[in-house]
Amino acid sequence: MRVMSAGDGYMYLLRTVAASDGDRSMSTPLTRYYTAEGTPPGRWMGAGLPGLGGGLIAEGDLVTEAQLQLLVGLGRDPVTGEPLGRAYPEYRTTAERASAQMRVEGLGNGPTARAAGAAASADEEPVARRRRAVAGYDFTFSIPKSASVLWGVADAGTQARIAAAHHGAVAEVIAYLEREVAATRTGTTGQGGAVAQVDVTGLIATAFDHFDSRAGDPHLHTHVVISNKVQTVLDGKWRSLDGRPMHEAVVALSELHESLFADALTRSLGVQWEPRERGRDRHPAWAVRGVPEALVAEFSTRSRHIDVETDRLIEAYVAGHGRHPSAVTITKLRAQATLATRPAKQVHSLAQLTAAWRERAGRVLGRDALVVMGDPVVLHAEDLPLSALEALGLSVMTAVSEKRATWRHWNLIAEASRQSMPYRFASASDREAVVGLIADAAERASLRRTPPELAVSPAAFQREDGTSVFRPKHSVVFTSTELLEAEARLLARAALVTAPRVTVPDSVARRRLPGGGVLAADQLAALSAVAGSGRVVDVLVGPAGAGKTTAMNALRRAWESAHGAGSVVGLAPSAAAATVLATDLGITTENLAKWWHSHLADGTTFRPGQLVIIDEASLAGTLPLDRVTALAAAAGVKVLLVGDHAQLQSVDAGGAFSLLVHDRPDAPELLDVHRFVHEWEKVASLGLRQGSPESIDAYASEPYGNRGRRDRSHYYCQRIRSGQWPARTPQRVHAGPPTQFCSVRSPRSSRGIEDCGD
User: Fold this and answer.
1) What are phi and psi of 672, to 5 degrees?
2) Strand partners, 540
3) Are 307 and 292 within 8 A, CB to CB?
4) d(CA 555, CA 549)
5) Is 21 exposed, middle or buried, given 0-12, 13-18 or 19+ CB atoms closer than 10 A?
6) Where is the composition biased (Polar residues) (predicted)?
């Protein structure tokens, strides 16, 4: 899902639409658009359509560019042009803010001010970064790659049936979203006020089908743009969608679409499905049995390019931040890689694409692509016994608790969809019922943390299910008794002092580092505290850039001097982080999940006297840490958790590292951040890390910390660089830009040129 901004953000959906009239919906015979270059026009969908234009727009009607401009671009009725509630808010650009500030400072509206404003608009603030109102949400529904490959090489009739299964799944998910997710807010947050989350009449959406990826591989997917404008059931007024549940439900909706599509395709074509591994740290992917993996790989050109660029961005992140990115950050880096490697979209007809795909498939397989069909076995909701549903619910709760300390409804729905994927169902309602029953069982197996409502709301303020509109839907937070017990065990092991101890020899303490220096005082103090504490579970805290890797290397040398080579091993929450740790310390490492799997499979364990370093511990789940430290305590091993509890944690993190740090007053910590040049930056960054609002004043007091000055300094520096203004000017108002705004110097300053460093 991506947020769509007001204005012309919708235009990319129209660039590939075939320029011809008539119904080109993919649910109609493919021959109606098979030879036309481009993709079918968009179509309207959603239960909120009757509220538009006096009911003149119906489900399935084609979308015109003028209608999109009115609804998405301007927030108006696509038929009448009337405003749908409040107009979209407008936000000033940097040039506008800078011009206003210059007028306040007496620089006026003269040529200099206009030139500065133009420079700011052209040079500093790319259009993509300008703040704009939210016009809608673009949900991209893609079918599994193996199904796209099957669709790409199949005959026209089979293509139509696959497309129909996809469209049916999309329609069911949108209907589910309308029932379970879509809502708006009304009320006031002022004194004595309250905000209610209330139901809407339905969604207003447009759906655009695309055939291929930008690399020209088969990739059947649909962009469903959901308008931010919704009509409230309570009073009929037009308001904005509540975006919070839209974001929270994204993963669950994606899993639901995939399972609904799999059901529909099995009912239509009789295909069977199987899980296929996708590498470490990733869930298995369900694929159509009979579509060879070699063929899937042949048509995954775009994914390979993105993977290569993502790996490069991860390496750059590690080099710049001194730590491996979290799962959330990796997702953002992959999105960045997707944009960076995106080629221009080539428009072809489906006939041209299909012919090329079949030819490529023939080269890979040496024969026509065949899919093993069988008699589909489909289930109804009542076919699964309650005992099976309860067992699946417990399994769902256990899987979620492996990575999260707390969870909500949508986390359970997503996992319930994954775990019910091996089953095929007779209808979407059967699938939804079973997923809901499994999630309900998982909630019953969980421990509720959110207190119940203290009073019953009046009927006017209740939803159909009896819940209060003053509490957001599906907002209850859960945990488990097992997690609470695991936290207690971790705290107890952290208090044990039966682990091996070592002293730091002078040869390690005084060793010259690659940069020419020696261990800093805080590094040596933390190193000595960890080495000699005797704690079974110890911690080492440090922000990025504080020298954790240097300290760990020194600890490794000290430990190996006492216990021999190979006595230090490493673990990490992810395979990539484990690889970085192995490279940095020169030790054997593995990710936590795989190490535990090896322990169960072949008895892999620790040996007495070892030091086990778990890096990026703030991203590790509570239950994996509990299991590993239990084995360590029994084997006479010391476990060191390394990380930063103040770092914004991944949504998957269990929070155990922070718990252990805050449970003791003397947690070893590295305090000197080496990456900053100016002392005030070090102090301010550490203050922000600890949540001190006063630290913001330090940034505001510095020239480049002030937003208004930074806005102006950038385009002033751009003019200086280009020679349009002199780098040194007389001290008068209209001579040009004040050079003190160029506050970050570079080697160019030695030639009389200031660099804004931005």
Assistant:
1) -95, 110
2) 642
3) no
4) 10
5) exposed
6) 740-749
pLDDT surpasses 90 at 631:
yes
Among residues 660, 664, 627, 621, the alpha carbon closest in space to that of 644 is found at 660
**Among all chains, which residue has been given the structure tokens 């139509």?**
160
Contact 185, 239 (CB under 8 A): yes
- DSSP state letters, 374-438: -----B-GGGS-HHHHHHHHHHHHHHHHTT-SSB-HHHHHHHHHHHTTTS-BSSHHHHHHHHHHH
Two structure tokens written together for 630: 């239990």
| Residue spans per domain, the chain | 2-89+133-273, 95-130+706-758, 381-478, 482-675
Q: Is pLDDT at 96 greater than 90 in this prediction? A: no
**In angstroms, rounded to a whole number, what is the distance separating the alpha carbons of residues 631 and 546?**
31
List the structure tokens of 137.
Answer: 């949400």
DSSP string, 72-134: IIH-B-TTT--B-SSPPP----HHHHHHHHHHHTT-TTSHHHHHHHHHIIIII--GGGS---E
Task: List pLDDT tens digits, range 299-332.
Answer: 887 777 777 778 788 878 777 766 677 666 777 7
Determine how β-strand 611-614 pairs with β-strand 568-572: parallel
355-362, Cβ contacts within 8 angstroms, sequence gap of 24 or more = 356/216, 357/152, 357/153, 357/217, 357/218, 357/299, 358/152, 358/153, 360/298, 360/299, 361/149, 361/152, 361/153, 361/295, 361/298
SS (H, E, C) 501-552: CCCCCHHHHCCCCCCCCCCCHHHHHHHHHHHHCCCCEEEEECCCCCCHHHHH
Question: CA–CA separation, 224 vs 127, rounded Å?
Answer: 24
Q: Which two tokens stand for residue 682?
A: 């070090």
CA atoms within 13 A on the CB side of 523: 24
The CA distances from residue 49 to 180, 201, 229, in Å, are 18, 9, 11
Q: Specify the pTM.
A: 0.75
Distance CA 394, CA 445 (A): 6
Q: What is the pLDDT of residue 373?
A: 54
Mean pLDDT across the stretch 593-610?
Answer: 93
**675-697, pLDDT tens digit by residue?**
666 777 767 777 776 677 777 77
For residue 390, count other CB atoms closer than 10 A to its CB: 17
Complete edge-to-edge strand list for the sheet that includes strand 134-142: 2-5, 134-142, 218-227, 205-212, 43-45
- pLDDT tens column, 521-540: 888 899 999 999 999 999 99
| Cα 565 from Cα 200, distance rounded (Å) | 66
Give residue-wise pLDDT tens across range 247-297. 999 999 999 999 999 999 999 999 999 998 876 657 788 999 888 888 888
For residues 397 and 411, the answer to whether their CB atoms sit within 8 Å is no
- pLDDT at position 4: 87
pLDDT reported for residue 105: 59
CATH number for 482-675: choose from 3.40.50.300, 3.40.630.10, 3.40.1030.10, 2.60.260.20: 3.40.50.300
What number is the average pLDDT over the span 701-705?
A: 55
The single residue listed with the structure tokens 């067992």 is 391
